[in-house]
Amino acid sequence: MVQRSWFARDIFVGAPVYPLVGISSEVCLHDAESSMRPAAGITRKSILVFAAICGLTVASTYYFQPLFPVVGKDLHQSAATISWVSTVLQLGYSLGLFLIVPLGDYFDRRKLVPGLMAVSALGLVGIATSSSVIPLLIWCALVGVTSVVAQIVVGLVATIAEPRQRGAAIGNVMTGLLLGILLARTISGLVAQYLSWRFVFAGAALMVGLLAIGARRSIPAVERSYQGSYPALLRSLGATFASEVVVRRAAIIGALNFACFSIFWNTSSLHLSSHPFKLGSAAIGLFGLVGVAGALAARLAGRMADRGRQWVTSVVMNFLIVLAYVALLIFPFNMVAIVVAVIVLDFGVQGSHISNQATIFAIRPDARSRITSIYMTSYFIGGALGSFLSTLAFRDGGYRLVAAAGVVLALAATTFRLLTLRLPGA
Prior knowledge:
CATH topology: Growth Hormone, Chain: A
Structural class: mainly alpha
Number of helices: 18
Distance between the termini: 20 Å
Helix content: over 70%
Strand content: under 5%
CATH architecture: Up-down Bundle
């Protein structure tokens, strides 16, 4: 019988993935995947298109990070007030993860993906034309909700890729996503410096809209895996969370990791634009390029996952996050230390993230969009929590308090990972 409780004992131990008498889980997984995967599998061209979709759509939630001082000045608000945009974007993204990503198991993704991209483009136009904070936050919420198309695409890649190549395929697509995030910060900083922050979002709307037009032909037909109603689909998220211990553990670790990630990047422009650095938006945007290590970590973690070493990789990556925040706590005003810490932080967060994804996508091929929804909802709730905590910490205690908060959350994630390492299902 499947255990439905998910209290402390079940979070650590849990129930078997496929509790079917007389049938091995490997046979179940193989048969289910074979029936869902298109005969052609996934091509290199498709991976490039999917990486572009993920990169451009998720980038929409990161353009603001180097722009808080500039946008605040234009809208006659403090940079700290405008930084709440990050929290709104991440909460909107979390809502979309819960309400929209499960539709990947329910609707034809050849229609769902371009449709969401078109609505996201509309939201970006709204941001570009906002003249006050309230409309800006409303449009940001819409962009956050619809940018979850990237997670639908990641689930699609996990479905159509061969099992022996799944980790590498996810890693390659996630590399595109991470490069999109990094380039978003850099490009938005440069464009805002020499043109206007509004051009950033107008240009983003144009790119997302054009890609939406051409996206459908690259998405293969995949048999829908859920035949019930939409309310029943949402209810099944709870049942899936209760029955899959691997998903629960990954969700907790992912939430703590992304909180660590958001704590740094949400306040980076505030810290780097103040004394003693006093950097402009272009320099702050370029600073984001040091996070390219995260993209390299995605490829490495994907390959390690294909070799069955995802949990070892997860432990190492979580230790790196702790080390990064210890460095930021000790040397908050040393530029060299900050650059090294950011490289280590991004490498650790993204490497752990890919390890988590490779692990959860190895189970329940019939429910990959729902598993993605559960994991990524937790992930971005963690991100929103990190943004919230960093805003309060920076306001009340400066950057040392921000770094201290990062140390606490990084240690929590590492401790949890170590406690669950040798338990069943780990």
